[in-house]
Amino acid sequence: MSCAEPRLVLLGRQGAGKGTQSNRLADHFGVMHVSTGDMFRTQAAQGTAFGLEAKRYMDAGDLVPDEIVVGVIEESMVPGGPLGGGFVLDGFPRTLHQARELDRVIAGFPLHLVIDLDVPREIVFDRIAGRRVCENCQRVYHVNLPPTHNWACDTCSGRVRQRDDDTEEAVERRLELYERETVPIVEYYRERGLLTLVDGVGEGDEVFERLVKVCLEQFS
To answer: Given 139, 159, 163, 210, which residue is catalytic?
Structure first.
């Protein structure tokens, strides 16, 4: 198996750093980073019916229904789509049903590795509830590390605000859903010999080095 085009899933609690690390892994291995959350937000910003419906669920801290999420992934299977070669999936699957549907969708090119990025609940709660995002360029800040001037983005001067799905109430709901809906996926992939646990606590570069190490060990 070549590590040049891995097919990976990155699991972990919301706020564990999956988005950042998935993007870095995708760049490192030269494959596509597939984030359903980004797909939903982009479509919502464009005002599409599909995107707005997904946003309604996310703003409430609820999981987007399986049929919507699976549809997005299946659309990526068209010729030349991101799932035609290597990829890093971020934010999918989130339920056992989605994991089984993913197996069906990618039956011709199965997963190489599933990584559970482990960060304790109390740490991710602080990360998410304190997160603030530029409305324009999407640069991420934190209440403890704000922009230089009056919540205007240091990069583009856009307004920096809390996302609707980052309120404390929504975060609590999302973490509860993770424990109930997503944790069973860990055992599902462990039983199939695909799962590796990686400590997600520490500086971003340290975590990234751990992730690359387990990938290279798997693909060697």
So the answer is: 163
Closest CA to 2 of 35, 23, 31: 31
pTM here is: 0.78
N residues, the chain? 220
Cα 79 to Cα 75, 83, 107, 109, 159: the distances in Å are 10, 9, 15, 14, 38
Distance CA(72)–CA(50), nearest Å, equals 10
Question: Cα–Cα distance between 21 and 205 in angstroms, integer?
Answer: 9
pLDDT tens by residue, 102-117: 898 888 778 999 999 9
Classify strands 131-134 and 160-161 as parallel, antiparallel or unpaired.
antiparallel
The single residue of 7, 18, 24, 41 carrying the catalytic annotation is 18
Name the catalytic one among 131, 159, 190, 210. Answer: 131
CATH superfamily of 7-219: P-loop containing nucleotide triphosphate hydrolases (3.40.50.300)
pLDDT for 132 equals: 95
Residue 9, beta-bridge partner list: 89, 114
Q: List the catalytic residue out of 24, 94, 127, 132.
A: 94
Q: Is 131 a catalytic residue?
A: yes
How far apart are alpha carbons 84 and 124 in whole angstroms? 32
163 is catalytic: yes
Is 18 known to be catalytic? yes
